[in-house]
Each structure stands twice: as C-alpha cells, then as structure tokens.
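Problem 12. The chain below contains 126 residues. Write out its predicted structure in token notation.
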Amino acid sequence: MTNANWCVLIACILPMATVGLAKVASRGADSYNNKRPRDWVAGLTGWKSRANAAQLNGFEALPLFIAAVVLAQQAHADQASIDMLAISFIAVRLVYIAVYLANIHILRTLVWISGLGISIAILLLS
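Solution.
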C-alpha cells in the first residue's frame, strides 16, 4: 500500500476521531449517549460542538481527496508526488482540527483552503 493510500485511510478515520474527543471528554449530565447520539450532539456547546462540526467537515473533504488520490494513481502520476501531497493533506487536516477546536475562525478558513488546494493539486497530477 502506498503512503497516499494510508493517508486515505487516515483521512477516513480522522472525522470519527475528532468527535471521539468530545465523547471521551463528556461526563455527568453531558455524557455521551449511544442510544440517542443525535440528541447528544444537538446539546453540545463550546469546543465539543466545534469537534462535531470539524467531524462533519472532515467527511465533506473526503470525496475530493479520495477521488484525487485514486485518479492520480490510475493515471500513473508520479507516486512520490502523490504521496507527498497526501501526507500534506493529512497534516493540514490535523492543523484544521486544532484551529477549529481552538475557535480560531480566520486561520481555520485559511487552513481549509489549503486542504482544498492540496486535493486539487493531487487531482491535477492525473
């Protein structure tokens, strides 16, 4: 499996891990309720609510990233370039999660644009 393929797997897991932070940190009346997860999410505030929003955005970012990696590999683009960009995408997504949780909205937007640009760059390799 290539580094880019590993990055696809990581990108698929990141959204669930992001909201997992909020689930693990919830205690008492705020405890995660697996019987009614949507109700639990609806009651979140602060960084836990932002963790859920970052999760949703992570899922939104997946289709373009996955398609870009697959199409670039099918086109036999330079694998080292695909790998480097895919690793960059994961790094940017980790920064995105951090700035989202920290509520630094302007930086979050800039980091999001960077992730989009990386996915487009991978796609253009094809």
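Discussion. The chain has one domain: 3-125. Students who got a different answer should revisit the alignment rule from Section 12.3.
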